[in-house]
Amino acid sequence: MKLLVTGGAGFIGSNFIRYWLQRHPGDRITNLDKLTYAGNRANLEGMPPGGELVCRDICDAGLEDLMEGVDAVVHFAAESHVDRSIDSAEIFIQTNVLGTHRLLEAARRKRIARFLHVSTDEVYGALEAEGEFTEAAPLQPNSPYAASKAGGDLLARAYFQTYRFPVILTRSCNNYGPYQHPEKLIPLMATNALEDRPLPVYGKGKQVREWLHVEDHCRVLELALQRGRPGEVYNLGSEQRRTNLQVVQTILRLLDKPQSLIQFVADRPGHDFRYALDAGKARRELQWEPEIDFETGLERTLCWYRQNPAWVESARGPSYKKYYSQMYDNREKRLSEL
Ligand code: NAD
Ligand code: TYD
Q1: What is the pLDDT of residues 234-247, one digit of tens each?
Q2: 145 is catalytic
Q3: What is the Cα–Cα distance from 109 to 23, expressed in whole angstroms?
Q4: For 106-121, what is each residue's pLDDT tens digit?
Q5: Domains (ranges, CATH) in the chain?
Q6: Are strands 208-213 and 241-243 parallel, antiparallel or unpaired?
Q7: How many whole angstroms from 132 Cα to the centroid of ligand 2?
Q8: What is the atom index within ligand 2 of the atom nearest the CA of 120?
Q9: Which H/E stretch holds residue 83?
Q10: Which element (helix H / strand E) includes 202?
């Protein structure tokens, strides 16, 4: 089989390529990645043979030439960080909406047999203390990131409705695991804790996220390619729901670091309170069951960050340090001013 994977130098994409090539020796994967700040060549080190990185932008015209002989497109490429979208939304619209359109259009013209559009629970908006989102829930995104992902989702849906182009959509909850950019909650807290630096929890840390290990995500994406029905949406949830404060406290406990490293800082504007997915459809139709429970997966993940200081160094270069300082310096003070 030949796959075109977009965003394969990022967190989930690189885990997916590694997973696929391990399980399907002899298959070939073209990895179309622009190598933005989130794309990291170090994520591709030690890959099994069969992958080829092509450094291009999904917004480019003429993507058809990368689709010769391709059986399926798996579309991960995106701007993915909510906080950055609050700061500067335009690139999110560019990549997540226009880029998704360019890719869909090229794939439709090439009559690609399967197009897997990888999306997020954030398109549904936020829940209060109760309830779960099913696939039928309305899209009510709250952040520019979530709105741009919803735009991409609606285009993918339209390509099925209008052209019967065989798109399958998946909406996953928050992922964690190796190779995740340290701007995201779990690697940020893990790498700070390993250096005995403060752990910046937004607001009071009461927001709830549902956590899926990236390996469980890769497995269900494989199943979606094999068994998913074109035009359908599949929620990918784990039922492993924790407040942010619980997550951070567990990280400190597992790393044997003091809870006093926790620092409450100014909240994210428009911060979604709770995400929770009803993943019954994926369980039934794809015969998928997540296998990695959160505490086990978290322990494995923390070990990985501890054992890979060179990777951490590569992901926390000068641009990350600048971002961190812009995002977090004086943030504690702003909280006390609220
Ligand atoms: P990431 O930010 O780690 O990686 C994104 C990758 O896309 C990077 O390699 C980057 O270089 C590439 N990219 C960005 N813009 C591009 C462009 N214009 N052209 C080509 N490549 C480009 O993201 P991730 O966490 O791996 O997420 C992958 C996908 O999964 C995204 O679509 C995201 O919305 C979705 N998702 C992520 C999570 C999560 O918890 N991380 C949860 C649900 C869904
Ligand atoms: P994040 O990893 O950015 O994912 P998302 O916003 O897409 O869910 O954040 C996960 C949760 O952790 C979210 O509620 C915001 C919170 N958070 C913090 O409290 N402190 C931080 O430094 C970061 C990055 C996130």
Answers
A1: 999 999 999 999 99
A2: yes
A3: 30
A4: 999 999 999 999 999 9
A5: 2-177+211-236 (3.40.50.720)
A6: antiparallel
A7: 20
A8: 7
A9: helix 82-87
A10: strand 199-202
